[in-house]
Every structure is written in C-alpha cells, then in structure tokens.
Amino acid sequence: GWLTESSACNWYGLSCSGGQVVKLDLPDNSIAGTIPPEVILLQQLNSATLSGNDISGRIPRELFFLRRLNILSLANNLFSGSVPPFLQQATHLRSLDLQANYLDGTLPDRLDQLTNLESLNLADNALQGKLPSDLMELPKLTELQLQSNRFDGQIPISGLSEATSLRLLNLSNNFFGGSIPTTVGMMTALQTLVLQGLDIGGSLPNTLGDLDNLVELKITD
C-alpha cells in the first residue's frame, strides 16, 4: 500500500522499470489535495493518469519538465488557474487531457514547440482569448477538443490550412465569430468537425466538399 516501508514499485497504481517509477495509473480513486512539486523527482515517468479524482490547486509546472512524460491525463479534477506557460517545455508529450477542470486565462505562447503532440483535450473549462494558429499547425496533432470554453475571435485561417493531420476538431460552445474559413477544405484527414453553439455566420464554404474522409459534421444546434 501507499506510504508504507515497502518499495514504491509495490504500491497500487504505480509501475516501475529498473527501480524507477515509469507509470502512474490512478483514475477514479477519490484522490484529494494537490500535486507536490516533488513530482519533478520522477524523471523516468512516461505516463500519468490521474483523471476522475478531486485533485485541486494549480497544475504544477514541474510536470512539464519531466522529459520522458508522453501521456498526461488530469481530466475531471478540481484544478484551477491557467495552463502553465511551461507547457511548451513538454516536447515529448503525445497526449494531454485537462478536460473538465476550472482552468481559465489564455493559452500559453510557443505551443508550436509541442511537435510530438497527437491529442489535446482542454474542453469544459473557462479558457478564453483568441486561438493561436500554431496550435493547429502541430505536425502530429490528430485530435483537438476545445469545446465549452470562452475562446473568441475568428477561427484561425492559417491554422486550418496547416492542420493536415487533424482527424477530430471540436470548437463548439465558444464565442468564435465570423465565418467558417475556406481553408477548412485543406484539412484532408478530418473525420469529425463540430462547430455547434458558435456565433458564426455566412454560407458554408464549398471547400467542405473536399473533405473526403469526413464522416461527422455538426454546425447548427
């Protein structure tokens, strides 16, 4: 069990390799409190799933300095504050899920550094501001879920034209305005596009017909 004299490698939800903790798998365990900065000591950690708990406070910046961390899921907790600006340091991150917390503020700069990121879920928070175009330009990004936040401005035109790997894009229930950019037709891998609950107008771009892989399109409520 936890906090016993036995090796941490024998604790529930922890996996080790070579005596070092490489995986935390503790979803839905009623864990409360905060994540201590000492998490930085887990330098071999490559996967941390702590979703569905009652963990609160700010997301510690130390998590994003774990060079081997590939998967981080903190969804459905009580985290508050902004997404740490040190997120850009997590260049090995492949999946980041922060859905359903109490995060606010704008997204940090230099997200274009996350060149290995494949899945990003920031849905169901209170994030705001304009969406940086470089977020959708990440070369390996296949899933981007930003629904139910407070993002505004126009949907980035240049970002869509570069999002050739995206298979799922959900921007619903935000405050985006303007119209759907014609560059949406360049998202050739797109399978699911959800733009419900937005303040967009105008006619649908003809370029939607270029999305040969599209199987789900939701624009009106």
Explain this structure.
By secondary structure, the chain is mainly β. It is built from 2 helices and 18 strands. The strands form 2 sheets. Strands 1-2-4-6-8-10-12-14-16-18 form a 10-stranded mixed sheet, with no helix packed on it.
Query: Strand portion, in percent?
Result: 25-35%
**Can you tell me the overall shape?**
elongated
Low-pLDDT residue intervals, each spanning 5 or more residues: none
**CA distance, first residue to last residue:** 49 Å
What is the CA-atom radius of gyration, in angstroms? 19 Å
Alpha-beta classification = mainly beta
Look at the structure and give the mean pLDDT.
92
> Strand order across the biggest sheet?
1-2-4-6-8-10-12-14-16-18
Helix content: under 10%
Please report the total strand number as a whole number.
18
Count, helices: 2
Largest sheet: 10 strands, mixed
- Helix/strand order: EEEEEEEEEEEHEEHEEEEE
Structural features:
ten-stranded mixed sheet, eight-stranded parallel sheet, 5% helix, 29% strand, single chain, mainly beta
Structure, briefly:
The chain is mainly beta.
Task: Please outline the helices and strands.
Blueprint: E1 14-17, E2 20-25, E3 32-33, E4 47-49, E5 54-57, E6 71-73, E7 78-81, E8 95-97, E9 102-105, E10 119-121, E11 126-130, H1 133-136, E12 143-145, E13 150-154, H2 157-162, E14 168-170, E15 175-178, E16 192-194, E17 199-200, E18 216-218
Parallel strand pairs: 2-4, 3-5, 4-6, 5-7, 6-8, 7-9, 8-10, 9-11, 10-12, 11-13, 12-14, 13-15, 14-16, 15-17, 16-18
Antiparallel strand pairs: 1-2
